[in-house]
Design a protein that fits this description.
The structure holds two protein chains of two kinds.
Chain A lengths: L2 E6 L5 E5 L4 E11 L4 E7 L4 E7 L7 E4 L1 E2 L3
Antiparallel strand pairs in A: 1-2, 1-6, 2-3, 3-4, 4-5, 5-7
Chain B lengths: L5 H12 L4 H8 L2 E3 L28 H10 L5 E6 L2 H7 L21 E2 L4 H6 L2 H14 L5 E6 L1 H6 L3 H12 L3 E4 L9 H15 L16 E7 L5 H11 L3 E7 L4 H6 L5 E4 L2 H15 L3 E3 L5 H12 L4 H29 L3 E4 L5 H4 L1 H6 L3 E7 L4 H10 L5 E4 L3 H11 L3 E4 L1 H9 L4 E3 L11 H16 L19
Parallel strand pairs in B: 2-3, 2-4, 4-5, 6-7, 6-8, 8-9, 10-11, 10-13, 11-12, 13-14
Antiparallel strand pairs in B: 1-12
The chains are: A mainly beta, B alpha/beta.
């Protein structure tokens, strides 16, 4: 369950940053991304999957959230 | 020799790796790569930020070096106690040439060494009492000190001293920030973790100090310069460009910086990061907590300076954008004259770099402005995100070497035969004795500044002075010369 910092890059994409793992990836898709809720399964550009319980209302980025590994 | 092709470079890496036993070879192979600028993610071809192999000569430092030497050390109006045995502080004192203004020993303390000088009894019975006494002594002897940081050396972590408790107690007593930093040297694989620990200490003990204080009048053009350590005056050469643009530089982190500047940083509009590796953590934190955007910039060489000034200006209104153009135009004649003077003398020369965490990619543009080509680059302590950024800067089929060993670097140099090497003091004399021109790119070889337009003039002069120095042809011993050449 790593702490992940989500922020927007210059192009407006969401970046998924895990300081401990030194990993910075772009998020390619989010399961639920509506004006009311944000979350569910998140897929990164490197193909890895992460999960977060949907948050409502959506958080304002940048923010730090706790994710689970998608395959757990 | 012409630049290597991709296959030649691969063959060279294989050849160099042959000397290792199997296990070491397998590990080192992951740290050496041939650049392919089209690759988006460096982790597919190069591994970084891993423990160095036992038995090889590595050039890395420790977490204490990253915290005390890099991040905290330059903050001039604080005393940084090297808490532990005397050596760590004594040998790292004033070696980094972070320039500052002030009266040393009165209101600034940059080049002084404060240590708790641990003896056997402190290891056995603990050093907390000694630390308390030391803090009192500092406050008595130097009443103008604005704060104190306690930089732990290895034994502090090993014997389990509670420096946090002492710091809290003394901080209350003296009413000054006293910051415990858990940067024991054994933590992490290189100085990089020290940067992170130092950033976290700033986050926990400094950043929020003035959150409720509204006496500071924030302006619309406030920026902070982050990750510029003012080596040889670098931050000053950068700062004037920003000020000429009409921006107000509220804080310098941490070269020539003060504690109150750091405390005021959360009130700025934009954080400008020069050294991404050592200060990105705190910038990310300020973005999250205070909503301050941050951007990386590069003030090496006119091409990158112009690019960065425009990028910075894009965050502000049209006045600033117009000013940025004026600044670039103002210096144009100056830098064109420098290029006209030095480029013919340096055109086509090949450079190999091996520096810390930012310069292996940042100075590439400055060399290119002088017509030189960077044929190999590597970092001591970079992480994957640094290589992501590097691979785009570097040309096709250039060498990349992470945490290069003494042996590998020598072999690469023998084969690639660069006209100049830019690295640190530990590499300097080996290569000079091999007859290869060398510049120290950590401390600018006691020259500098190299940032900004003013710095570029000095940079160009220094490179010319080194590459075209007549001494390099005189290095062969007389008895080794053949009859014809003697």
């Amino acid at each position: 369950m790593p702490n992940v910092m989500i922020r927007k890059n210059d192009a407006g994409d969401l970046l998924f940053y895990v300081a401990k793992k030194d990993m910075e990836e772009t998020i390619s898709s989010v399961e639920t991304d509506t004006p009311e809720t944000w979350g569910g399964e998140v897929v990164l550009t490197d193909g890895s999957r992460w999960y977060i319980d949907p948050i409502s209302p959506p958080p304002s980025f940048p923010t730090t959230l706790r994710f689970k590994r998608g395959d757990e | 020799m012409a630049t290597l092709t991709r296959d030649e470079a691969q063959a060279l890496i294989q050849e160099v790796l042959e000397a290792y036993p199997d296990k070491a070879k397998k590990d080192r192979a992951k740290h050496l790569a041939v650049n392919d600028p089209s690759v988006e993610q460096s982790k597919k071809c190069i591994i970084s930020n891993r423990k160095s192999q036992p038995g090889v000569m590595t050039i890395r430092g420790c977490a204490y070096a990253g915290s005390k030497g890099v991040v905290w050390g330059p903050i001039k109006d604080m005393v940084h106690i090297s808490h532990g045995p005397v050596g760590c502080g004594a040998y790292s004192r004033a070696g980094r040439r972070n320039y500052y203004v002030g009266h040393t020993g009165v209101n600034v303390f940059g080049t002084m060494n404060f240590t708790s000088d641990f003896q056997e009894k402190d290891i056995v019975f603990g050093g907390d009492k000694k630390l308390e006494k030391l803090i009192d002594e500092i406050n008595t002897l130097f009443p103008l000190v604005k704060g104190i940081s306690v930089q732990s050396e290895c034994p502090i972590g090993l014997i389990g001293d509670d420096i946090e408790a002492v710091s809290k107690k003394k901080g209350k007593e003296l009413n000054k920030p006293i910051v415990p930093v858990r940067c024991e040297g054994f933590r992490g694989v290189s100085q990089s973790l020290g940067h992170h620990i130092a950033n976290d200490a700033i986050r926990d003990w400094v950043i929020g100090n003035r959150d409720g204080d509204t006496t500071f009048e924030a302006g619309p053009y406030d920026v902070a310069v982050i990750g510029d350590y003012n080596i040889g005056g670098d931050a000053w050469a950068s700062r004037i460009l920003l000020e000429e643009m009409g921006l107000r530089v509220v804080a310098q982190w941490s070269g020539d910086g003060t504690l109150s500047e750091m405390e005021l940083t959360p009130k700025v509009k934009l954080n400008l990061i020069h050294c991404y590796r050592s200060m990105n953590y705190i910038s990310r934190f300020m973005e999250e907590k205070y909503g301050i955007p941050w951007m990386e910039y590069n003030f090496f060489g006119p091409t990158k300076i112009a690019e960065s000034l425009r990028k910075i200006a894009a965050f502000f209104d049209e006045t600033i954008q117009a000013n940025a153009e004026q600044v670039i135009a103002k210096y144009q004649a100056e830098y064109e004259a420098i290029i006209a003077k030095y480029r013919p003398r340096l055109e086509g020369k090949k450079v190999m770099l091996y520096v810390g965490g930012l310069r292996p990619r940042h100075v590439v543009g400055a060399y290119e402005d002088l017509g030189m080509e960077v044929v190999g680059t590597g970092y001591e302590f970079a992480h994957n995100d640094d290589y992501d950024r590097t691979m785009k800067e570097m040309g096709e089929a250039t060498l990349l070497y992470d945490d290069v060993t003494g042996y590998e670097f020598e072999e690469f140099v023998k084969k690639v035969k660069p006209d100049l090497i830019g690295s640190g003091i530990k590499e300097k004399y080996i290569f000079q004795k091999m007859g290869v021109p060398f510049r120290q790119m950590h401390s600018w070889d006691y020259s500098g500044p190299y940032h900004g337009y003013d710095g570029f003039a000095i940079f160009a002069r220094d490179m010319d002075m080194t590459v075209n120095n007549p001494c390099w042809s005189q290095l062969q011993a007389p008895w080794l010369k053949s009859a014809a050449s003697a």
